[in-house]
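Memo to structure team: turn this sequence into structure tokens by end of day. - J.P.
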Amino acid sequence: MNIISAISSILYPTECPVCGAVLVKGEETFCTECLMNFPWSDPDFHYHDTILKLKNSNIKNLYSLFNYAKGADSKNLLYAIKYHNRPKLAYKMGVMLGKHLEKHLHGDIIIPIPLHPKRERKRGYNQSVEIARGVSKITAIPFSTKAIHKIKNTSTLTSHNREERFATINGAFELGEASLIKGKEVIIVDDVITTGATVMAAISAMEQAGAKGFTLICVAKTSL
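Reply from structure team:
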């Protein structure tokens, strides 16, 4: 560690995004306690969402890095990625997701869920793009932000129930460069999947291009 890095670590210590504890030497991204107790999902037991598969038989699997229970401390990590200007943390979670699924993930292209341009300008980045970038780094599966675009600037879906989420997000995406996904196995990346309303709306747009099938991956799978 050079002197500038040493001074920076003293003035601006790195904190665990889950519990807020200052990281000590040897710890990276998470403190040891949070890393040991994190609710990691088992990639060998991939999640089949019955409701999503009934709605769309082209969805093959849904994988997540961890399972989120309402009110758990891991919400701090999700908020940091999404609302607290932490694109590098989102990328790191993508790297972890890629390593978690490296032996299980198969596809031709990775497509992150896009934000509406106004929302992305305000936030400064799209957390799903950073996650996808990390997954692509590990798996060597290419990713693109040009296949679909968000054209409807929807409000946050957090306070909506399942039916309201599907109604709000319906028609929110349009197809971009169809050639990127025509006949391809598409891996869709989002930060959090709850009801699947957002990814279903994105799939609806991409199916127009003749995508072969879809696998969904996310940092966290939650439930209402």
